[in-house]
Amino acid sequence: AQSVAQPEDQVNVAEGNPLTVKCTYSVSGNPYLFWYVQYPNRGLQFLLKYITGDNLVKGSYGFEAEFNKSQTSFHLKKPSALVSDSALYFCAVRDTNAGKSTFGDGTTLTVKP
Amino acid sequence: GAVVSQHPSRVICKSGTSVKIECRSLDFQATTMFWYRQFPKQSLMLMATSNEGSKATYEQGVEKDKFLINHASLTLSTLTVTSAHPEDSSFYICSARDQGAGKDEQFFGPGTRLTVL
Fold first, then answer.
1. pLDDT by residue (tens digit) across A83-112?
2. Do B111 and A42 touch (CB under 8 A)?
């Protein structure tokens, strides 16, 4: 079975500071990893994914994530946070055969001016 | 990019009635779609996998007679919440799998907010 853990319910950062949202995963086989962002009462917006290749993945809105196989982590990062980045962030792992996605519990990011 | 729509975006109904939610892939064919449920400030929980032309596969603990799924065409899956109760109030999100031309991508719909009075 696959699983995802987001150890922080809440992350608070000041605008302009770097941000990190943590994610660890457990899968059998090669992981397909994703980050999504959700604004209130809205669906999921895709940020980035890791399938294979470079461990550092660049995505939308200046976000990036680093795949670390030895630590089974896929932390989301941004060098300089914006107030508009405040939202709920989900890490997910996808079953490559069945296509099912398993989501972490989500991390609420708050960026203060 | 590919777009998945859901209709309605918001619905309020009385207890005991049934509500149908549509999920459409607008510019690709999706033999597989997925239905998720999200409670406030919680994660998405997979309810079922919708397969075009065959029965849906439900996750453990999801009542298939209550949450009826029909994937009648390659671009449309419907979720019907039958005899709705207030505890069925939730945010329902679908995703559609695009496996055309060697791809394997998934796209999420904008969600449907169901409130059962």
1. 999 999 999 999 888 888 999 999 999 999
2. yes
